[in-house]
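Weekly structure sync, notes
Attendees: PL (lead), two postdocs, one rotation student
Agenda item 3: pending single-chain targets
PL asked that the sequence for the first pending target be pasted directly into the notes so everyone works from the same version. It is reproduced below exactly as submitted, 917 residues in total.
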Amino acid sequence: MNRHSRPILVTGAFGNLGIHVLDALLRSSRRVLAVDLATPKTRARARRFRSEHGAHLETVWLDLRDREAVARVVVKARPSAIIHLAAVLPPFSEAPDAPVDAVNRGGTAALLAAAHSAGLHTRFVLASSYSVYGAQHPGAPGPDGAPAPKLLDADTPTAPVDAYGRSKLAAEQAVRASGLPAVILRLGAVIPFEGGLESMLTLRMLFEVPWDGLRHAIDPRDAALAFARACEAPDAVGRVLLIGGDPSFRGQHGPSVSEQLVLRGLPAAEFETFSPPSARAEDYFTEGWMDTREAEAVLGFQRHTRADYEATVRERMGVLRHVTPLASGAVRSFMRGLSPYRNGAPPPRDPLQTRLRALHRTHADRALVHSECVSPLPASELRAQLDEPGWDEWSSFLTTLKVESATPGRASKARGTLGLALPGGLSAPVPVELLTLTRSELRWRGGIPGIFQGEHYLRFQPVEDGTRIAHGERFTGALGARVGAAARPLVDALYQREAQGLAARVRAAQSPRAVALPGSEEELSPAWLEAVLRERHPTTRVAEVSLAGSSHAGDGLASTADRIKLRARYSENPDGLREDLLLKTIFLGSGARVGPASLHALSMLNHGVTRLPAGGHLQRKLFHGLTRFQERFPQAPDAMYENEVRFYREIRPTLEIETPAAYAAVRHPSSRGFFVLMEDLGTRGAHFPSALESLTPDAMAGLLQTLAALHARHWQSPALRGALAWVPTSTSGGMFELFDGIGLELIRAQLQLYPFKAELISPLGRDLDSLWKTMWDVQRAMRTQPMTLLHGDVHIGNTYTLPRGPGGLLDWQLMMRGCWAHDVAYVIATGLSTETRRAHEGALIAHYCAELAGHGVHNPPTPDEAFELYRRAVSWGLVIGWLITPPQNYGEALTSANIARLVAAAQDLDTFGGAPQ
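Predicted structure, written out during the meeting:
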């Protein structure tokens, strides 16, 4: 029999890689015996291949654990080669009852034994994996800030840490011992074009791997070609060859996941939803970067670049790629809900493999949603919070619980009515059955008995450091497990927020009840001021308070808050408080305020309106109207006010930098009011510069000294992922949802309504969409840099200088975590004239780096490294800092001066040129 008349046997032939291997073999007119398990998916794929290649394709449905059936197929077919792809893959291979060894090792042994019993000297091509090397830490970054790991090769020691890796290594050993002419191909990540995920388990697994974990991917067509050529290449026998794409396919886990989503028209993944980077190798997955030069020399399989792969995905997506953005808001919420790290949870204690095994729940547990957090209060005080009005202050979906009848401690068959929150501040009554109502547990049930019911619980368990709040739901009934598994990501996210919201309410309850803000500045009285001061200065007594001046949001002197100068006279002042005070607040009534729900609705509407007939026109009308509304009622989103209040309450007391001293900082969640009472810097001779003047290089050096002290204090601090995890980043939390959801269209409306802005940015020679994309590319690239605490909005108008000492920082509404360059670039680019900046920016950046080292940062950026980050970071100040800011906030002259300086800096530094590294 002619060798080419004998088929090539392919196991796992209708899997995600198998279909490409079949295609490569059948296009070269080879006969193929396709072996696979019979499932609806594999049968559908088999029908398609038979319709196209019927004469050259034979299909056998077979379980490799049936050794006798395997032997019959091999003896009958007498294949010229065996390509063994079939395997139980991660994460399913790590389930307690997964047949990973029986299939991955046992199936290999069955094929080898069948070939021997048939007297065949058949070439055996085994699909192995780089999982055999074990967990791969990305290591320290190279000089360019990118990972620089040692490449894996055939001689790298193997040390598998999971069931899949161990089974593949055992299969390799069996192949080597078989005496058959064999080729072992250790595969990287074969990324399908369809981008489908096998299960919710696969999605959850993605977030357990740290963002900076390594990934070496490959186009499935190239991987398939490697297997096809391994069947015949004379130099392949006896080798272990590493199969990955060319260097363009080397990347990191988080960015790779994000790129796959964006490629399909979905929102990018967020850094904070992934397990944080770790110093422990055991926290990383079994993926690394491979040296594929030997494999390429033998097989010549690398035909496609990353760009080729992406072009194919876009082509296959077709019109669907323009439809998926409609669901981007829902997808983002869904993805956040899947991640246990989305709310700044502390780094996991267990190794990655332990966490992956824990993802495999029993069938009953799949119907369970469960979230926890710890409060510092004892359980008795914590439970008392539920007896007070104001559930809507910590709960996003409940407003009240009215108990109609209950026996204390038992509540068997008692009835209750929940107030379910609806959009627009409305509430709907929902009847429930109360199961437990005690000082440590609240449990109710609702739904359709026997079919689908949700049993909701809220429990308080004393622990060493306070009380563990457990919040969750178990779905029961005939449809319970199915519906529960489908709903878990969204419900899980909801209950995590609920538990944290309750903990936040408890923290507020630990301090004296917050003092309300009067309705107008004329109502500010000595009694009110004394009550405000009481929390931190309980023995201070105020005899008189008077208004010494004011500026209001939108008048060109104040941007998004009112500033009221007060002069106090004290009858008792043991703490030596200043008489001249500044009250920062907003007196705009709640009826004119745009709340979080409205902003979220605008974001969702923006994603969908352009798909409607005349959608572009509707979108322009919507954002022109929103811009005009902002002109009439200047304000900031609640997230900015909350950020500043928390800065002055929780962070300012820990800092030793030049920034105003605060005597009180209060926010009322129910009324959405806020105020910060601070010193009036005018009494210290402070000067408040603007972009209409130019600081001297020495004055700028003083401001950079202050920034270096702030950044060094929190440089790569564990607190940034612990106690300070609530602080937003440029790509999550805080203002991100607004910027990401409607920011681009807000700017587009600004450029249309205020042509001077469009004229100012015209020298860049780029359209708005290009500027917007580059700015976000830079933000994503910056996430790989050392993290610290940033001021976040250091245009020169948010600084001040003093007669002596370094300058100071004002207005912490946009405080965030991130890369130091965010602050440094913004203040230099807006604070110096273009000529002064050009002459001194290099020296000033070197000065900043030296200040970092002087404050104890062990590995500060070199001046060259720092300058590269600095030039890219200018993009944020231009796009988010000033293009999105309405001119009435500061006046046209000041707005124009800032934009002009930032545009000049972007031109000089080529900020928007090339791709960020």
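Discussion points:
- The chain has four domains: 3-196+217-247+285-305, 361-510, 513-593+633-684, 686-917.
- DSSP finds 27 helices and 26 strands in the chain.
Action: rotation student to compare against the earlier draft before next sync.
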